[in-house]
C-alpha cells in the first residue's frame, strides 16, 4: 500500500476541486475510480477502501475559502495570539493574530519614525496581545486582471484586517520558541546588512534567507519576465546545494560519522525553512530531504514519487490552506513533473540537452496556471535557463555560502568577497538586461480559459508519452497541437464579433479602454496615474497594478491610439508606462495640450503625435470619432479638455474629460441638438460640471462616473448626483461598482459592473 501513496495525493486533489459541498460528486468519482483501479490495475479492495475513507477525511479537512466564522468588526479592540513571524518593513509592521475563537486577522502598525527606532520587541511570535485600533475593509478585486488581495488573504485563512493605533495603546506578553529562531535570523541579517554592500546583501538575504524585500523591483520584474522567479525563491536547487556543502563539511572537515551527520542535517532541515522565511518551496525541499534520509535508514523502500507524496500530505494536513498557495502548487507540480519525466530528461547524455529538457518540462507543466494568473510567458526562457541555472547553481550559491562562512570565521575578508561578488554578479545581471532589450518576445495570451486546462494537459501528457517511447514524429504532432491550442487562445478576441468599453476603477482619475469588435482596434481614453502615499511624488501604482494587468489579461500588446483629454496627472499619469511597454501607434491630444509633456513622450516612443480640435473627426479602422471640443484656447487645462463623440453598438457616447459649466455651455450653444445615450460625467462628478442646461441638451440615459473610493474631494458632488437622478438618468460609479464594462456588437450593447 505504501508504494502507491501518490494515489492519496490524487484523491486529495479531487476533493479540493469539488470542495464546495458537492460530496455526492466525490462519491460518484470514487465509485468509478474504484472499479477502474480494481479491474484494470488489480488494486485490492483493502486499498480502495482506504482511498474512500481518506476521501471522507480529506473532504472535511480541506478548508473553504468562504468566511465561516464571524467577528465583531465594529469593536476597537482585538485580543489573541501572534501566530506568524512579525514582519518589519520600512513603512509598517505586520503579523497574523489568532483570536480565541480561531479567527485569523492580519494586523498592521504604521509607526512614526521615532516609533520605528524605539522598542517594538513586544510584538513577538507566540505573544498574547491586547490591541487597540480599528478593523479595515479588505479591498476586493475591482478590475479584470487585477491581483485579488482579498482572495490571497482568504487562501491563508485570513478574512479580517486590523490597523493598530500608536504603539503605546497596545500590550503584548510572552513568546514562543519560534521567536528565538526568528530573532537569530533577524540579528544575523541586521549584522550582514552593516557589513555588506546593499547589492550583495540583497542577494544574500533573498537566496539564503528568503527575504526579497531588499531586491530592486526592476530585478524582480526582469526575472519574472523571463520566468526565472524560481531562482529568487529558495527551492530544491538551493536546499540541495546547501545539503551537499553541509555534508562535505561534516564528513570531511569535522570528521563526523555518517549517522551523526545525517542526524544533524535532519535537525538543520527542520529549522532552516523557519530561518528562510517559511516559503512552500523551501519546506517542500527540506521535508523531502528529511523523508529520504529517514527512508534510507529504514527497511522500507519507497519510490521518489511516494516520498514526495508523503511531504505533500504532511504539509496540507499541518497547514490545510497551503493547498491554495500558488507557490505551493507550482513547487509540487514542477517537482512531480520532473520526476515523472526523468526518462525523457535523461534521454540525452548531453548536459545542455538535459538542462533544456528540465526547463521545458518545468515551463509546460505550470503554463496554464501561469497564464491564468499572469497572462504571459517567455518562450525563450528555456534557452536562458541553460545559462542562468548553472550560473546560480555553481557560482552564485557557493559564493554566498562562502560569504556566510566568512562572517563567522574570517569577517575581516568579507569586504574582499563582497567586491568580488559585485564585480562578477553585476556584469551578469547587466547582460540579462541587454538580452531583455534585444530578445524579449513575451507571448501574451490573455487569461487562460479554464475549460482549456484539461485538453492542454491531455495533449501535454500524450506528447511526453510518445517522446518517452522514442516515437518522435507522433510526439512532434501533439506538441504542434499544444502550440495550436495556445494560438487559438491568443487569437480568440480576433474572432469575436463583440467589442468592449471598460471604464477601469482607477481611483480618483480616468482610464477607459475600448476594444473594437474582432480586435480591429484598441483605444485608451485617458490613463490616470496616482501619487505616492504622502502625495510627494508620482507613483506607477495605477499602471503596475491596474492598467498593465488589465491589458495583459485581455491579450493586448498593441494600442492603436491613446486619446488624452488634458494634461492633469489623474488623466495622463500612466501614459509613460504604456508608451515604454506597449506598441502605441498614435497619441491624440488637443492643440492646447502641454507641449513639454509631449516632448518627453516623443523621446520614449515612435508613436505619431496628432492634435485635433472641434469639428475634426478621425477613424480607427471603421470606428468614427468626432471631436466636439475645444474650439479655442480657454486658458484652463480642464476647459481645454478634448471632448469626443462616437457610437458603440446602438448607443452614442460622449467622453467629456474635465470640462466645466462654461465648456458645457459652449457645447450646448454650438451643438444644440446633440443628444447622447451614455455620458462620461466630467471632472469625476464635481459640482463645477454637469449643469442642468447641459443635461437638458444632451439627454443621456446612462451616466458613468470615474471616482475614487472615499476620495478627499468629496466627488461626486451630491448636487450632481441628485441632478442626474432627477432627470431619470441611471448612474454607475467606479467607487461603488468597480470597473464598468459595456459589451457591444454592431447593433446591441449591454452594461455590467465588475463588483456585484
From TrEMBL:
It comes from Gracilibacillus salinarum. The chain crosses the membrane at residues 6-36, 43-62, 231-254, 263-296, 302-319, 351-375, 382-410, 448-467, 476-495. It is a multi-pass membrane protein. SUPFAM superfamilies: Metallo-hydrolase/oxidoreductase. It is found in: Cell membrane. NCBIfam families: ComEC_N-term, ComEC_Rec2. Residues 508-709 form the Metallo-beta-lactamase domain. It comes from the Bacteria. InterPro entries: ComA-like_MBL (IPR035681), ComEC_N (IPR004477), Competence_ComEC/Rec2 (IPR004797), Competence_DNA_uptake (IPR052159), DUF4131 (IPR025405), Metallo-B-lactamas (IPR001279), RibonucZ/Hydroxyglut_hydro (IPR036866). This is DNA internalization-related competence protein ComEC/Rec2. Keywords: Cell membrane, Membrane, Transmembrane, Transmembrane helix.
Amino acid at each position: 500500500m505504501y508504494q502507491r501513496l501518490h494515489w492519496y495525493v490524487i484523491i486529495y486533489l479531487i476533493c479540493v476541486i469539488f470542495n464546495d459541498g458537492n460530496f455526492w460528486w466525490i462519491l460518484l468519482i470514487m465509485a468509478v475510480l474504484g472499479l477502474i483501479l480494481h479491474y484494470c490495475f488489480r488494486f485490492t479492495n483493502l486499498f480502495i477502501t482506504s482511498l474512500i475513507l481518506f476521501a471522507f477525511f480529506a473532504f472535511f479537512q480541506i478548508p473553504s475559502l468562504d468566511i465561516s466564522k464571524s467577528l465583531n468588526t465594529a469593536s476597537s479592540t482585538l485580543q489573541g495570539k501572534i501566530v506568524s513571524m512579525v514582519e518589519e518593513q520600512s513603512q509598517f509592521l505586520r503579523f497574523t493574530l489568532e483570536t480565541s475563537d480561531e479567527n485569523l486577522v492580519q494586523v498592521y502598525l504604521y509607526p512614526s519614525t521615532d516609533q520605528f527606532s524605539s522598542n517594538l520587541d513586544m510584538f513577538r511570535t507566540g505573544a498574547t496581545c491586547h490591541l487597540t485600533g480599528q478593523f479595515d475593509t479588505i479591498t476586493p478585486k475591482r478590475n479584470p486582471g487585477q491581483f485579488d488581495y482579498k482572495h490571497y488573504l482568504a487562501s491563508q485563512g485570513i478574512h479580517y484586517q486590523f490597523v493598530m493605533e500608536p504603539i503605546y495603546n497596545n500590550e503584548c506578553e510572552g513568546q514562543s520558541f519560534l521567536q528565538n529562531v526568528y530573532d537569530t535570523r533577524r540579528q544575523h541579517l541586521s549584522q550582514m546588512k552593516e557589513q555588506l554592500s546593499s547589492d550583495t546583501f540583497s542577494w544574500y538575504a533573498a537566496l539564503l534567507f528568503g527575504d526579497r524585500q531588499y531586491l530592486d523591483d526592476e530585478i524582480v520584474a526582469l526575472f519574472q519576465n523571463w520566468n526565472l522567479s524560481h531562482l529568487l525563491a529558495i527551492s530544491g536547487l538551493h536546499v540541495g546545494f546547501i545539503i551537499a556543502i553541509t555534508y562535505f563539511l561534516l564528513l570531511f572537515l569535522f570528521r563526523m560519522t555518517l549517522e551523526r551527520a545525517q542526524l544533524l542535517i535532519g535537525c538543520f532541515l527542520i529549522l532552516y525553512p523557519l530561518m528562510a522565511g517559511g516559503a512552500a518551496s523551501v519546506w517542500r525541499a527540506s521535508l523531502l530531504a528529511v523523508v529520504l534520509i529517514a527512508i534510507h535508514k529504514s527497511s522500507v523502500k519507497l519510490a521518489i514519487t511516494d516520498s514526495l507524496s508523503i511531504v505533500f500530505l504532511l504539509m496540507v494536513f499541518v497547514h490545510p490552506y497551503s493547498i491554495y498557495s500558488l507557490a505551493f502548487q507550482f513547487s509540487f507540480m514542477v517537482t512531480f513533473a520532473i520526476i515523472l519525466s526523468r526518462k525523457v530528461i535523461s534521454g540525452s547524455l548531453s548536459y545542455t540537452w538535459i538542462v533544456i529538457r528540465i526547463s521545458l518540462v518545468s515551463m509546460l507543466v505550470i503554463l496554464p496556471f501561469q497564464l491564468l494568473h499572469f497572462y504571459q510567458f517567455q518562450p525563450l526562457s528555456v534557452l536562458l535557463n541553460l545559462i542562468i541555472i548553472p550560473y546560480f547553481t555553481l557560482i552564485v550559491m557557493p559564493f554566498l555560502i562562502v560569504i556566510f562562512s566568512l562572517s563567522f570565521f574570517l569577517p575581516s575578508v568579507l569586504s574582499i568577497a563582497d567586491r568580488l561578488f559585485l564585480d562578477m554578479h553585476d556584469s551578469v545581471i547587466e547582460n540579462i538586461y541587454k538580452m531583455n532589450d534585444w530578445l524579449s518576445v513575451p507571448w501574451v495570451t490573455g487569461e487562460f480559459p479554464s475549460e482549456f486546462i484539461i485538453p492542454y494537459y491531455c495533449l501535454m501528457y500524450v506528447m511526453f508519452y510518445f517522446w518517452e517511447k522514442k516515437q518522435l514524429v507522433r510526439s512532434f504532432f501533439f506538441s504542434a497541437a499544444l502550440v495550436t491550442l495556445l494560438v487559438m487562445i491568443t487569437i480568440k478576441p480576433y474572432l469575436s464579433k463583440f467589442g468592449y468599453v471598460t471604464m477601469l476603477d482607477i481611483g480618483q482619475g480616468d482610464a477607459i479602454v475600448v476594444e473594437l469588435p474582432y480586435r480591429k482596434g484598441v483605444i485608451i481614453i485617458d490613463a490616470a496615474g496616482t501619487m505616492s502615499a504622502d502625495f510627494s511624488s508620482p507613483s506607477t501604482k495605477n499602471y503596475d497594478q491596474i492598467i498593465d494587468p488589465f491589458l495583459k489579461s485581455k491579450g493586448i500588446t498593441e494600442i492603436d491610439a491613446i486619446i488624452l483629454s488634458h494634461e492633469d496627472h489623474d488623466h495622463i499619469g500612466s501614459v509613460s508606462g504604456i508608451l515604454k511597454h506597449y506598441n502605441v501607434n498614435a497619441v491624440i491630444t488637443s492643440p492646447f495640450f502641454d507641449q513639454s509633456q509631449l516632448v518627453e513622450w516623443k523621446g520614449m516612443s515612435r508613436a505619431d503625435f496628432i492634435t485635433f480640435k472641434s469639428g475634426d473627426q478621425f477613424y480607427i479602422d471603421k470606428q468614427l470619432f468626432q471631436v466636439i471640443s475645444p474650439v479655442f484656447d480657454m486658458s484652463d487645462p480642464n476647459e481645454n479638455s478634448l471632448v469626443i463623440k462616437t457610437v458603440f453598438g446602438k448607443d452614442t457616447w460622449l467622453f467629456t474629460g474635465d470640462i466645466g459649466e462654461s465648456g458645457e455651455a459652449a457645447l450646448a450653444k454650438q451643438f444644440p441638438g446633440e443628444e447622447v445615450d451614455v455620458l462620461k460625467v466630467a471632472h469625476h462628478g464635481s459640482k463645477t460640471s454637469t449643469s442642468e442646461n447641459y443635461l437638458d441638451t444632451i439627454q443621456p440615459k446612462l451616466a458613468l462616473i470615474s471616482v475614487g473610493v472615499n476620495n478627499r474631494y468629496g466627488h461626486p458632488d451630491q448636487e450632481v448626483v441628485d441632478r442626474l437622478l432627477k432627470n431619470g438618468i441611471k448612474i454607475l460609479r467606479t467607487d461603488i461598482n468597480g470597473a464598468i464594462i459595456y459589451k457591444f456588437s454592431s447593433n446591441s450593447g449591454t452594461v455590467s459592473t465588475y463588483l456585484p
